[in-house]
Write a structure and sequence with these properties.
Blueprint: H1 11-21, H2 25-53, H3 56-70
Helix pairs in contact: 1-2
Length: 75
């Protein structure tokens, strides 16, 4: 599904869009937005991973569950 959008650009931004987007300006903007969405998601994941790495109580909880999961596996 596609949607139409109307927005205002500064002259230099529009000139750049014309230069880079050529005849398919919508496609160019669409690709830029997809890349930005992916970059934002990657940053959020990295931030969450850093937060998790520093959470000692979370790691202690994981160790407890690792022990629980391993109970009886050798038998």
């Amino acid at each position: 599904m596609t949607y139409r959008a109307t927005f205002t650009l500064e002259a230099d931004a529009f000139a750049f869009l014309k230069q880079m987007g050529g005849e398919n300006r919508s496609g160019y903007i669409n690709e830029l937005l997809k890349r930005e969405k992916r970059r934002t998601l990657e940053q959020a994941i990295l931030s969450a991973n850093r937060e998790e790495a520093g959470d000692q109580s979370y790691h202690a909880e994981l160790e407890t569950w690792d022990e629980t999961l391993a109970d009886g596996l050798d038998e």
